[in-house]
Amino acid sequence: QVHFVESGGGLVQPGGSLRLSCAATKSIFSIIGMGWYRLAPGREREQVAYITNGDTTGYADSVKGRFTISRDSAKNSVYLQMNNLKPDDTAVYYCNSRDGTYSWGQGTQVTVSS
After folding, report:
1. CA-wise closest residue to 36 among 63, 13, 2, 72
2. CA-based diameter of the chain, in Å?
3. How far apart are CA 114 and CA 112, in angstroms?
4. Fewest CB atoms within 10 Å of the CB: 75, 85, 94, 114?
5. What CA–CA distance (Å, rounded) separates 60 from 53?
6. Which residues, at least 6 apart from 60, have a Cβ–Cβ distance to it below 8 Å?
7. 30: closest CA among 58, 2, 63?
8. Element (H, E) at 107
9. From first to last of its 114 residues, what are the pLDDT tens digits of the chain?
10. Residue 24 and residue 32 in contact, taking contact as beta carbons nearer than 8 Å
């Protein structure tokens, strides 16, 4: 069973930046693609970014140009650099496989507020 541990969230002002990290308990990144998701109150969980095992990336329209996903297979980790954060980015952020088939971790809270 693979587990994910997310970290790096916090409180930031609009326009600020955060870098989220996700560590997997097993080496899976060489096999499957990974994604970052977020869940905000009153909304469904949405995938905001993904990276394939060939390092192709994709982003939701709402974060395109502001968020960057990357991976370090040697560290079994995936990252999400978030710039120019907006209040609508406030959510709990999770990582999972690109198709979201593994168990969800605890996530990391991101709050964008002045």
Report:
1. 63
2. 41
3. 7
4. 114
5. 19
6. 46, 47, 48, 49
7. 2
8. none
9. 889 999 999 999 999 999 999 999 888 766 679 999 999 999 999 999 999 988 999 999 999 999 999 999 889 999 999 999 999 999 999 999 999 989 999 999 999 999
10. no
